[in-house]
Amino acid sequence: MISVYLKSPKREKKIQDSDEAPGSVLWMAPEVLLGEKIDEKLDVYAFALVFWEILTRKDLFAEYDDKEIFTEDIARKGIRPLLDDIHPVLKEIIIRCWDRNPDIRPSFEQLLPMLEKALIQIYLPPTLCPLAPIFWEKNFKQQARVPIDVFVPSLIKTLKPVTKKTQTQKEESCLKALLEEEDGDEKVVSIERFSALLTWFGRMKIDKFTILDRVLEVMSSPWFFGMESSQQVERRIAVLERKPRGYFLVRLNTGERTPIDKAPFTITRVADDGNVVHTRVYTNKKGGLTIKPSEAETITSKGTSIRDFVQMIQNKNSSLLTLPCPGWPFEHIFASTPIPRSAYDEAGEDDLEF
């Protein structure tokens, strides 16, 4: 006898399986529950349920504790878990995989390219960057994570086939600082982190400028602190002997609380009272950036350059952002000469909105 336990907040429930087809009842395909002819598609059905559990982080069929009722609902009535909070692309795959008719379910051989396509559609849609899905599929087919020492040279070669060695070294260092993740002992770039890079810094190419130009432009600014958390930057400021009003830094929003596309950056600064204030920089309907440093003040730009936006804030309110916070983490990457400013997609100063 095999018992399958379903956990609820108050008690444990179980469906017991003691018939001729022993197994994990909750994940059994309808044809197994009804004693019909079976093939390898029963595993595709089970995969759909496990995939649903991973995506939703919910208990599967927690409302059932009777096998006969469970079999009637699942195998004959076609009841399935709710898909309300699942991405439409993945929803379509799951629905096919747990279809009552095994012939409609894809084989695992068919399923793998479906999942790869879904991954690209979710993280690298053409609306984010038309070149990104082409680049990923061409170079990293059927991969969700790529060794960083493979990814970075590939991206640079795609964007700048011919470039100076010293410039390439800076570009490689900057990209690794922004993209590197750990997968066991390996340093990798995930498709999700690449998507975040495009959300922070824009498309791979805009006219003659590339995302490499924009990354260098921002990272060469001594107030940019990358992906440091609010706790990390607060500790940095806490150890300073003096905390003058207007000390500030800019860091990337990693999407833990607010989606990156809604608020790509956060400005951390020392306020008039000496307290540390974190203020999100939001994208606005006109495609620019907006910050609300106080209830009475809103500053908006038409362009998406965070460097231009910082300068604009300083011009608008010189006491708000005065000095970059000490401890610039990327100082070792750059020589004494800063990266030249590029007006890759920005309006002229006369076009800025206050």
Explained architecture:
The longest helix has 16 residues, at 41-56. It is built from twelve helices and 13 strands. The termini are far apart. The strands form four sheets. A six-stranded mixed β-sheet has the order 12-11-10-9-8-13. A hairpin with a 4-residue loop joins strand 1 (2-7) and strand 2 (12-17). The model is unreliable at 1-13, 18-22 and 338-354 (pLDDT under 50). It has helices at 30-33, 41-56, 67-76, 88-97, 108-123, 131-139, 148-159, 165-179, 191-201, 211-219, 230-238, 306-316, and strands at residues 2-7, 12-17, 145-147, 181-183, 186-190, 205-206, 209-210, 247-252, 265-270, 276-283, 289-294, 297-300, 323-324. The protein folds into three domains: 2-120, Transferase(Phosphotransferase) domain 1 (Transferase(Phosphotransferase), domain 1), CATH 1.10.510; 127-219, EF-hand (Recoverin, domain 1, Orthogonal Bundle), CATH 1.10.238.10; 230-351, SHC Adaptor Protein, CATH 3.30.505.10. The chain has 354 residues and is α+β, with helices and mostly antiparallel strands.
What is the H-and-E element order?
A: EEHHHHHHEHHEEHEEHHEEEEEHE
**Order of adjacent strands in the largest pleated sheet:** 12-11-10-9-8-13
What's the CATH architecture of the largest domain? Answer: 2-Layer Sandwich
Biggest sheet overview: 6 strands, mixed
CATH superfamily heading of the largest domain: SH2 domain
Portion in helices: 25-40%
The CATH class designation of the largest domain is Alpha Beta
Q: Uncertain runs with pLDDT below 50, 5 residues or more?
A: 1-13, 18-22, 338-354
Which whole number gives the mean pLDDT?
87
Number of domains: 3
| Shape field | elongated
